[in-house]
Amino acid sequence: MLNRYYADLHIHIGRTDSGKPVKITGARSLTLKNILETAANVKGMNMIGVIDCHVPEIIAELERLIAEGEVFEHEEGGVWFKHICLILGSEIEVYDESCRGPIHVLAFMPKLEKMKQFSHYLAERMKNITLSSQRIYETGENLQRKVKELGGLFIPAHVFTPHKSLYGKGVCSTLTEVLDPFLIDGIELGLSSDTHMAETIQELEKYTFLSNSDAHSLEKIGREYQIVQMAKPTFKELELALLEKDGRKVIANFGLNPKLGKYYQTTCEKCGAGFNDISTLECPFCGSRRFVKGVRDRLFELSESGKQKRRARPPYVHQVPLEFLPSLGKKTLEKLRDHFGTDMAILHEVSETQLKQVVKPELATMILNARAGKLLIQTGGGGVYGKIKNS
To answer: Per-residue DSSP letters for 45-97?
Structure first.
């Protein structure tokens, strides 16, 4: 029997259990145990990918948790905590002779022993194995082969963001410049793009699209996610879903409207103004020729609009995370969580009538509009997130 599960496959660790930094820009509270508790009890996730599990101290912590019986490894892959499955991942920076800029990729391993082997492999090719998203001194294709040798999954990360991504800032015109297309298991879109934008790139047609949070704090877990149809939340089932085999598949992506992303609109580096026409190669407001090219304009350069789309894609819902709502304060959010359980319950299961029994009617309406992506947006760009307008 197939069921539906909420999955967010890109969550960072900010600190180890002993307080050592892993993701420098990650929150101190973003420890492995806090991630598990928050994802399960507050966010309502069923599967999470923690992408700093190559760090030796994190491996040691997982071994300790398994020995103490707090978590256990499933025979089909993944580490289970309560009702949630942890997929062991690593984010790696590739910058080989084929790249014109650094590229971030995600590698996921089925078992802790495989992640230990992968960690040893990385330690021989990285300057600091204790930190997140470090550069590997190896080719992208050789890295892919190692991931596959260990039975892992390989997914290019946030592929359209201007910095450290496959298509960003002119790094690649085609993924075959750097990677073996046959050793890719899925494509992570990133916060400034969605399915409608990405499916204009013909070479991505065969891959499953993923929408993940890239969380650097506990509250950001689940700001983007997908519903995955599987028999159970395990590594093996996830692999089948990415390949769309035996009825397993992603059936819906939920993410920010790309306009809320930090890099949607081309933005002047000098004055911070966003603009639409980059053909003159200068800011129309201050004349500066230095700007951060937005995802929208980069995709326009890469797109093949004349090509006919052959593949049916699951819906991409422009859902606004609860914490983005300007009228929803921390105390009210806690009140909603106390009453309804988790964010997933609030966003997917609670009726309008139920909401209005707990919060004011105008806030209930805003939450319903957030579910459906019907809120007014101030467009983001140049590293600054977009905002929800009150009216």
So the answer is: -SEEEETBTTSHHHHHHHHHHHHTTSSEE-TTSSEEETTEEEEEEEEEEE--T
Give dist(CA 283, CA 301) in Å, integer. Answer: 19
Inter-CA distances, 179 with 38, 76, 161, 167, 186, Å: 35, 28, 18, 12, 13
CATH 3.20.20.140 residue spans of the chain:
3-257
Q: Helices (H), strands (E): how many in the chain?
A: 11, 17
- Output the average pLDDT for the chain: 90
Burial category of 7 from C-beta neighbours within 10 Å (exposed 0-12, middle 13-18, buried 19 and up)? buried
Rg (CA), the chain: 21
Q: Taking 90 as the threshold, does the pLDDT of residue 273 lie above it?
A: no
Token pair for residue 334? 């806690």
Per the structure block, which two tokens stand in for 266? 């081309």
Q: Top-level CATH class of 3-257?
A: alpha beta
Cβ-Cβ contacts under 8 Å for 372 (sequence gap 6 or more)? 317, 318, 319
Q: For the residues 337-342, what does the mean pLDDT come to?
A: 96
Contact 104, 89 (CB under 8 A): no
Query: In this structure, what token pair is assigned to residue 215?
Result: 């969380």
Task: Output the pTM of the full model.
Answer: 0.91
| Cβ burial, residue 290 (10 Å; 0-12/13-18/19+) | exposed
Dihedral (C-alpha) 269, 273, 276, 277: value to the nearest 10 degrees?
-60
User: Any idea which fold 321-372 has?
Assistant: DNA polymerase; domain 1 (1.10.150)
CA dist., res. 309 & res. 296, Å (int): 19
47-71: string of b/e by CB count within 10 Å (b at 16+)? bbbbbbbbbebbbebbeebeeeeeb
For position 387, what pLDDT does the model report?
Answer: 78
Stretch(es) of the chain classified as CATH 1.10.150:
321-372
Which tokens in the block code for residue 45? 């996730």
Q: Is residue 164 a contact partner of residue 172, using CB atoms and an 8 Å limit? A: no
Give me the residues paired with residue 89 across strands: 108
